[in-house]
UniProtKB/TrEMBL annotation:
Domain of life: Bacteria
Residue ranges of every copy of the EAL domain listed in the record: 24-278
High-level lineage: Bacteria, Pseudomonadati, Pseudomonadota, Gammaproteobacteria, Thiotrichales
Segment of the intact protein contained: 310 to 594 of 594
Name of protein: GGDEF-domain containing protein
Provenance organism: Thiosulfativibrio zosterae
Amino acid sequence: HAKRNGKNFYKTYEPNMTLEIFKRLETEREMMNAINEEQFEVYYQPQVNINTNEVVGLEALIRWNHPTKGLINPDDFIPIAEELRLIIPLGEFVFHRSCQQVQTLIDENLFNGYLSINVSGVQIERGNFVEFVKDSLGKTLFEPTKIELEITESVIMNDTKSWIDVLNNLKSIGCKVAIDDFGKGYSSLTHLSNLPIDKIKIDKAFIDDISETQNSRLITEIVMFLAKKMDLTPFAEGVESEVQRDILMSLGCEFVQGYFFSKPKSFNDIKNWLKSVRDTQCLEN
Ligand code: C2E
Ligand code: MG
Ligand code: MG
Ligand code: MG
């Protein structure tokens, strides 16, 4: 019941652990209930070509409208959902709902880019992910070539290689694949060159202080160089300021996303945002 903490110290976790377990059970029960009661909602954040100011993509980001706690961000429940494998029904919900909703934006000529969807390693390892994707795309009539699946570096570096087949199958039906949060973990370069991927999303941490530290700028430059040599599209996330945008532009990073352009928005709000972009021909918050 004691956990090793640091070098020579042992920390007793007993009282806290009971509370942890209790909280977890409560979260599990609440989350199952939330799925049934449709408390989850998909938000959308635009991805932009900074040279042309075109909206090239929309990333689907899940939110939980909790009846008493309000809007909960994914970082607070995705890890638990993964542990409890509830990420499977949740991930399926996000996939299907976002295809339905973005298809209506395409039909109304408000959007003509791709839809980016985050996929958990748990979903990929489960076995029937490709079948689910095909089925959902068939039902929503969403064009497979307009789907981009984002998987994090940690999934890529996982020892079980079964996901390579999954990615290859997804690519064979036309979907694109991006590595999310790149640089946060540790990817081996040899490994990277053999992967069935199309895009590298440089982690927000590097963009955060790209204007202050030479280090972050250098790393961004290196990743950009690497991506281009490997024929992958470099992409920057977490762009919050004009300065950051301009630096990225000068480094030749064409595609970005961040609060500077728009925060993630509900379906109705993104629809209105896309309308105003169309009407004024400019990107605004
Ligand atoms: P992510 O996929 O790396 O998504 C980008 C996150 O950065 C989003 O947080 C977005 O709101 C935030 N972000 C974007 N631009 C800026 C910016 O300029 N400044 C700041 N401060 N933040 C910015 P969000 O929506 O809270 O999602 C967090 C993470 O949760 C996502 O990171 C993703 O890993 C995970 N996630 C979200 N939706 C899903 C989902 O449907 N399935 C799975 N498996 N994971 C999801
Ligand atoms: Mg993502
Ligand atoms: Mg990311
Ligand atoms: Mg992330």
